[in-house]
Design goal:
The protein is α+β, with helices and mostly antiparallel strands. It has two domains: 80 residues, AF2212/PG0164-like (Elongation Factor Tu (Ef-tu), domain 3); 103 residues, Cysteine proteinases (Cathepsin B, Chain A), CATH 3.90.70.10. The chain contains five helices and twelve strands. The protein has a twelve-stranded mixed beta sheet. A hairpin with a 2-residue loop joins strand 4 and strand 5.
Length: 222
């Protein structure tokens, strides 16, 4: 899985780094130093991310890489956790045989806060909220993008291999996607399909303010 975002090479403390603008603990389920592959502007390298606390990380930039980039310039960064492949070998589904073709979305609401990630998977897969919770092995406030992607892979639902981080910038959304926005300490998840927005907390919406958006994962849809 790749994570795409905009960032700059900055001098921090005693070294040059690229700050990762999202919570790696929450999104990638990685704690401690994490080996990553980083690419931007035809430059690719591997490094161990370094924690700056509370799930936020920096990517160290060596002098060799620094000589090829412009400090302070904003780049589109592609990041991939090394060795974080998913094991879905026991699934009865695959991309050519998914649990369903995503040709519409039915709203799934959450009975209380903390189940929006499971509700988003339920909407995409056409299953119940309870089934999504059981599949993801998590309850309230335990869902994250890593668990959601694992569930989509298990269910054979095609999706982009890149999670796009817009971080409040204006953007054009794909036909179908899981949207991630910030809500207090946690991320909130909803689904867009064919110009409509399905939030587990509210009725179906025809408009959405993308300035609230942290990022999105495109879902393959008919």
């Amino acid at each position: 899985m790749k994570y795409e975002f905009k960032s700059k090479v900055e001098f921090r403390d005693t070294e040059n780094t690229i700050p990762v603008p999202f919570n790696v603990w929450e999104v990638c389920e990685v704690v401690g130093k994490a080996p990553v592959r980083v690419c931007f502007d035809e430059i690719c390298f591997t490094a161990n991310m370094e924690s700056r606390g509370q799930g936020y990380y920096d990517i160290p930039v060596t002098d060799d890489i620094l000589s090829k980039v412009e400090t302070g310039k904003e780049y589109t960064i592609s990041l991939q956790i090394v060795g974080n492949n998913l094991d879905i070998s026991d699934s009865p589904y695959w991309e050519a045989n998914p649990i369903r073709k995503v040709d519409h979305i039915d709203l799934v609401t959450q009975p209380w806060d903390g189940l929006c990630g499971q509700a988003a998977v339920a909407m995409i897969a056409g299953i119940s909220l309870d089934e999504a919770c059981d599949l993801m092995h998590c309850r309230e406030w335990q869902a994250n993008m890593a668990k959601m992607i694992t569930a989509l892979d298990y269910l054979g639902i095609p999706h982009s291999n890149t999670l796009i981080y817009t971080l409040g910038r204006e953007c054009e959304l794909p036909k179908c996607a899981i949207l991630m926005e910030k809500m207090g300490r946690y991320s909130h998840y909803l689904v867009t399909f064919d110009g409509k927005f399905y939030d587990p907390n509210v009725p179906v919406m025809s408009e959405y303010d993308t300035k609230k958006l942290i990022g999105y994962l495109e879902i393959g849809a008919k």
